[in-house]
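hey so i finally got around to running both of the ones u sent me last week. sorry it took forever, my laptop kept dying halfway thru and i had to restart like 3 times lol. anyway pasting them below in the order u listed, first the sequence line then the structure token line for each. didnt double check formatting much so if smth looks off just lmk and ill redo it

first one:
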Amino acid sequence: MAFYELTLPVTATQAKPLEAIIADLGAVAITFQDDSNVPIYEPLPGETPLWDFLKLTALFEDQQSLNRTQAFLTSHLPKVEIIATQLKDEVWERLWMDHFKPMQFGDNSWVIPDGYAPVDAKAVNLLLDPGLAFGTGTHATTALCLEWLDRHDVTGQQWVDFGCGSGILAIMALLQGAKKVICVDIDAQAIEATRQNAKKNNVASGIEIVAPDAIESIRNQDGILANILSAPLKQLRPKFIPMLKPGGHIVLSGILSEQSEALCNEYAQSFIDIDCQNLDDWVRVSARKPS
């Protein structure tokens, strides 16, 4: 199926009104990108900040909608450069996987994407098709968690993967010898990816799915893996405490370097042996619940 794309520069004040109009004219997706090299990191809950100058990209399923939208924008924004393009027919959500190659984490752990043979047959090899869910190991936040699992003995233990995404952390824990991993995610697509990847790695029997509104049922676990974001991690500290048995580990990721001190101070209220590891401006925070 052919798709059509329309791009134009807009200001922050123009963005929301134009988004509504373009959607009404037939766009199936609209995105905004920075057009002035000013970064926006993690917003506070409820915030939806925009850059001062943006590039608006609208996607259309038919040329008629594209032409109608282009005509409207040309008449109302005559001095703005508007670019219309017909896109090559691709399976867009999977195209990026052409650049996804086997990766090693720590001393003995590998993530092997579909279509590749293990590099080291004696290593712990996780076979992965992430689908549309987050978690391949290519991002520093996931890599930091995989490295922690490679260097700590989880044999026979029960863990929680909070925000499981593709299931990569839960599955690696099981491949490293964990007895069971409880997986939690708000995205149904992530849960499906976790189930499929667990089956691919012959560890499906070790996965238990718990809905986000039922996490109070999780108790007495050996550890929690939570690769999400700093703001929700702060909010979740009181909920994580009863999930762990005394001495249980917590491994947190998705934290920017400048956020790590505040997060460590938050968790120091309830946890001990706090340790921080950095990779590419991201931080992993690990700690233990007091015995």
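and the second one:
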Amino acid sequence: MRCLVPVATNSPKSRLAPVLSPAERRTFARAMLLDVLSTLVAADCQPTVLATDSIDDDQITNRATIAVDDRPLTPAINARLAEGEPTLIVMADLPLIEPQDIIQLTDSDADVTVAPGLGGGTNALAIHDPSFRVDYHGASYLDHCRAADEVGASVETVDSRRLATDIDEPTDLAEILIHGDGAAAEWLTAAGFELDTTGGRVGVVRE
């Protein structure tokens, strides 16, 4: 099963703007991507980074092939799905995932296996049905379940905290400091972030 990791290279992680500068967001996004690629390689995948622009980075190119497609996410992915090859799609902002999470996706017997995000999005898909197409707008997890039903494809949902934890908001950074041990966690620590336990919910502060 081929593996695609979509990446927007221009202005990644805009919702982290309250705590990270544009340059920091790019560097942090790179760290999360490295974590994802390392996990995929450890799970015996050969990932392709589907990027909106070229990537000249040895640490990334040593782990993945780069394919450039500047279209929005949905048409870029659907163009690949139209080729009819079984495809695993994993988002680039899942720094907590481990090899067993990927194996759970790829070992599923379902036509479409979905790993939802906590906010109703879709963080990973394993697709065997050549007629299935993605739509990443809105509550895409529900949309993908409906899309599978419309083409008569069987669906399995993977309930995984690690796969569900995508990093979009400043409050999400606490999950990396609590549970992460890869490049993203190292970057946050080096950048001066630490856990803040003074409120009702654990958050982060920056030195």
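quick thing i noticed on the 2nd:
Strands lie at 2-7, 47-51, 65-68, 87-90, 112-116, 122-127, 155-157, 193-196, 203-206.
anyway thats it, ttyl
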